Amino acid sequence: MHASAVICDERVIENQQQSTCKARHFTAIEGIPSTYILEKLHQLGPRYYGDKSTAFAELYVEGLDKPFWVHEEYLVLQSVFFQETLQNVTSGDIITITLPSPDTFEPMLQYLYDGDADKWYDTFTPDNYLGIWRNVESLGLGIEARAICLTYYHNEIKKDLNDDMVDDDIIDDMIDDDMDDDNEMDDEECIR
């Protein structure tokens, strides 16, 4: 299952429609590790989360009735989906995305801004866990987000499954295979 996006440019300047064809790529400052940049962004995240005046775009998630005012740097550094989607977005655009579990998106977005793993973890429940995992997969979030999901799975879901005497080897294998795929991709990226 993958997320999808519709980009819509509804800005009008001097009665002329703005072009939606401008390609845009976020590039980090050469020589500065992205982990350092992300650490600094997370420190500033609570200040910028939901800030309409500094937002890059207005994001809607199908199934939710509220806009999210988002900043390009927070999304492209942590999500393969947003790296690809925001390439053709210009400042002020309206973006609509489809996710497997819209209801779990807002706490995930807050996590992308503040990096507070504990706060995001506390929003997980046995009922919403699978939806969160599917959103993480759809958005192509990194190893840190996946580790938080796996920690919850091992601490809460697997424990409950074992308590119910359910054989969860299939689920473990599925998650382990996914993590192995991520590690292989990381290795391939290092080789390039």
From TrEMBL:
Transmembrane segments: none annotated. Pfam families: BTB. Gene3D superfamilies: Potassium Channel Kv1.1, Chain A (3.30.710.10). InterPro entries: BTB/POZ_dom, SKP1/BTB/POZ_sf. Residues 55-116 form the BTB domain. This is BTB domain-containing protein. It comes from Rhizophagus clarus.
